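Write out the 3D structure for:
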Amino acid sequence: MSGTKYAFAVAAIKSMESSLLTRTEIDRLINSTSPSEKQAVLASSDTGSLEDTWKMIRGYAPDDKTLDILLYKNDFHNLKAALKAIMSDRDPADYFIKPANIDTELIVNAINTKEFETLPDYMRDAAAEAYELITRTLDGQLSDSLIDRAALLAMQKGADKSGSEFMKRYAEYMTVTSDIKTAYRCAKMNKPRRFMENAICGSSALDGEMLINAAMSGLEGLFSFLDSSSYSEPSALLKESPARFEKWCDDIIMELAETSRFKTFGSEPLAAFYIAKEAEIKNLRILSVCAESGTDKETITERMRKLYV
């Protein structure tokens, strides 16, 4: 897209920011005592689906391949869903998520026919390898870890190819947060090195081999390694509570999105708005789950993710 077209797209996106829930509105939802009160708050904002938001963004920037990187995680989730559903003779449609770059029917057909070359190049090798692994070992967890790692590698490669500093940082944050989560689970469950090597991606920000070595020595060794790195803050949160660490993971992505709020050219503000919508939907989901479980208001407030507006 030309700079002029991006200027129009960004201006349109800026006008949509008023549809996002504000902190005041989130607080009103937390403190509301009846469904009608909640509905009154939501009626003042556009709480449409993430898929609708993506379609709107694509309407303004239909040819921007850089934005596709935001949906790589959904594409690879759908690959996992298709593999496991087909292996268990279930309908994979029940497990797919949207929006996604790759038509789910294409993924299903590629698996059924073993014609993985029909998939986009950022997925085809991972799909073939995961299929071989799950059919040979019947180990869904091992296959999932391979696909998750492949998704992170695809993000990093796609971001590097795009030349977008925003997307490079996005891919870096997604990889680091995912790798720390994986290392934590592996250390806690005493997973073997081979499993970790299959699951931990690594990046220029956090060396994968060093992280694996730390996790191999257990949780104490993992925390010692993280405490001495630039990720001592999230390490402290993870020690305290995995839920607090999860919040940090989401908030650091939102902080990245905020860096693009005042830019008038390029695809970054469009990507930032999509990230903001993701955070809003996650907050609404947390609110719903907490309400059902009777969680107190203070805890709910602590769990709310950082907002864009």
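The chain is about 70% helix and 0% strand.
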